[in-house]
Amino acid sequence: MKYTAHINIMPLKELLDPQGKAVSSSLHNLGLTQVQEVRIGKHITLTLDASSKDEAGNMVQDACKKLLANQVMEAFDYTLVEG
Q: Residue 55: which H helix or E strand, with range?
């Protein structure tokens, strides 16, 4: 069965996000002073074949832990869609 995984990877809240700070500053310079905080991360979409949703979830977690996310600096979450 095919599954699509939508993975979000974000910097840990405890860490400074220099890209987010730069974008926040630029938004303020453009007059969008209502913006309070900006954090920038990654969105990754994977399509995979698995025999069950649990197996697909395990594959996504392995991919994130081993390659896609640096767990020292980033956290990840994902959703799986069947089909």
A: helix 53-63
Fold of 2-82: Mth169; Chain: A , (3.30.1280)
CB 9 within 8 A of CB 75: yes
Strand order in the sheet with 42-49: 42-49, 2-11, 74-82
- Dist CA 67 CA 7 (whole Å): 13
Separation CA 79–CA 57 (nearest Å): 9
* C-alpha of 8 from chain center: 2
Residue 77 — very low, low, confident or very high, per pLDDT cuts 50/70/90? very high
Instruction: From 49, 57, 54, select the one nearest 77 (Cα to Cα).
Output: 57
pTM above 0.90, yes or no: no
- 16 pLDDT band, cuts 50/70/90, is very high
